[in-house]
Specification:
The chain is 38% helix and 16% strand. The chain is an alpha/beta fold.
Length: 238
């Protein structure tokens, strides 16, 4: 029985490295995230091969943002690959267009709230309105969900706030910015451990470098899976 709560981010250079990582992790991991950085390295081909030939679930993390017609067309193109999750930015017109593009498919549209690599200083530098990040994430999540998103991407620190929202009932919360205790933070700023992310209400945790950069990636993944199965990872009853 697979524990699909763990999504491994394949932030590796190309298809060959991605296939080698999947081979190394074997049956321990059933869900992979392929992001924009892999696009020119054959990311779509890798996604399709892992899905169709290896039976893996795939989260395509493209974070689409454009005018509505372009987003709709892009999402419709991705939907033909029968992937599981796709990200778009959480702006209302983007989410509505993505929903149209995904019509007739089982692919879930996940809306990005505020990137987990950003803090308040970063938002100020980008002329984002004043306010606490957690409040802004909750506001953006509510807007995205009411405009048709199947779920949201948010840091694990804000997962509990989102899970408590009426709009989040039956919706997915997927959390990057997850680091095992003692792991380097890298470029992430709003983080928790895997167990805490799930306890906060996350349905899935995304972990990349702490797994694929580990001396033993399979052991690293299995350690996170064991943490997710621990009593500390018990999700709240909301």
């Amino acid at each position: 029985m697979f524990d699909d709560r763990l999504i491994v981010a394949m932030d590796v250079p190309n298809v060959l490295d991605g296939l080698e990582l999947a081979k190394t992790l074997g049956d321990s991991v059933n869900f992979y995230k392929i992001g924009l950085g892999m696009l020119t390295g054959g990311g779509l081909a890798l996604a399709n091969e892992l899905k169709q030939e290896h039976g893996k679930r795939i989260f395509l993390d493209m974070k689409f943002f454009d005018i509505g017609a372009t987003v709709e067309a892009a999402v419709r193109g991705v939907a033909q690959f029968d992937l599981d999750f796709l990200t778009v930015h959480g702006d209302p017109h983007v989410v509505r267009a993505a929903r149209e593009g995904a019509a007739g498919s089982d692919m879930k549209i996940l809306a990005v709230t505020i990137l987990t690599s950003l803090d308040r200083d970063d938002l100020d530098a980008s002329c984002i309105k004043a306010g606490d990040i957690a409040d802004l994430v909750r506001e953006r999540a509510g807007i995205a969900l009411t405009n048709g998103a199947d779920g949201v991407i948010a840091s694990p620190q804000e997962a509990a706030l989102i899970r408590a929202m009426p709009e989040a009932a039956g919706k997915l919360i997927v959390t990057p910015g997850v680091r095992p205790a003692g792991a380097a933070l890298g470029d992430q700023k709003r983080v928790t451990t895997p167990a805490q992310a799930v306890a906060n209400g996350a349905d899935h945790v995304v972990v990349g470098r702490p797994i694929w950069q580990a001396a033993n990636p399979k052991a690293a993944a299995q350690s996170i899976l064991a943490e997710l199965a621990s009593p500390q990872a018990k999700a709240p009853n909301l």
